[in-house]
Amino acid sequence: MIPATMAAARWLATDTVEVTQVPVPEVPEGWALVKVAYDGVCGTDLSILHGKHPRAAAPLILGHEMSGWVETAGATGPPAGTLVVVEPLISCGECKACRDGLSHVCRRLGLYGIDAPGAMAQYVALPPEVLHAVPDGVDPRTATLAEPLAVAVHAVDLSGLRPGDTVAVYGAGPIGVLTALVARHAGAAHVVITEPSAWRRDVAAGLGFTVVAPGSTMAETLAPLTDGEGADVTFDSAAHPTVAAEVAAVTRVRGRVVIVGVYKQPTPIDLQAICFKEQTVVGVRVYTSADVTRAIELIATDALELEHFPTRAFALDDVAAALDAATTGQDCLKVLVTPLTGKADS
Question: Signal peptide location in the record (predicted)?
């Protein structure tokens, strides 16, 4: 039986999140009610927390990286009891991008957890078209990685990566490491990662990637692997001005630069080098529905061995500690929040 109220983490004001009892969401006609298993904390949640997101308005239930079970099925979509992950995009269906089948870059793109209530709660109401069924046997905790993994899948797809390519990745946060894993699975011969955090460098090295040593540079590390030509594909998952300034220099003639991390403001980039090398630069907004499906396939087949991807689960009641852990970025690559009893890490 569905209760009348539920626990939810609500952002109330800058740097203020409280777990309170709120009504279980009313389910619009044709929609589904999902019982949340886990929700991943991402940089967007931290931006909202600190009052820096331009669209988020308090009070707001945070969270868009979610897994859970269909409690009440929608008019279409997965039946009750199905484990699902969510494609949390809200598109207008009217702009040119939407009409052209590119709703993931809708002119008025929104997300659950930003523009509508999210998943840091026991239940969330969602339209059935955003629900993706997860195959039997997949751990809901691992399934929660499908949303950030879809970003990586989309980035590698846009890169035009070919088997045997040498790849440079800036940033060993969750998106950077997932992008590196997908690139290797797609056939990259060498994946080189640079990252300022010693702990994250150790994680990347433990996953079998070449890591730029302290005191060295990406260019110096790539040189012996590429005869000094540079990377075939460079992924910027760090979104830091110092990275934007050098991505063209470390990428070969006619190489591809993929901007995966979202810059908070306009940032200088070496357009002269891009012209002289005839490089291609492409941005990544989010992902397509097909990318989410592919991410689920990679998880279900254990193609990326994500059991080695460090996560830490916090109870919903301990959301403040979860947000603090995500801010420091130490001891785990992905912080999860769960409303389920007994599923948080001790």
Answer: none
